[in-house]
Amino acid sequence: MTDRTLLLLRHAKAEAGYGVIDYDRALTDRGHDQARRVGRLLAEAGHTPDHVICSAAKRTRQTLEGVLETLGTTPEIDYSESAYTAGVDSLVELITYVDPGVRTLLVVGHNPTIAQLAATFVGNEALVSYSPATVSAVDMEVEWLYTAPGMGSGRILG
Question: Is 125 helix (H, G, I), strand (E, B) or coil?
Answer without folding.
Answer: helix
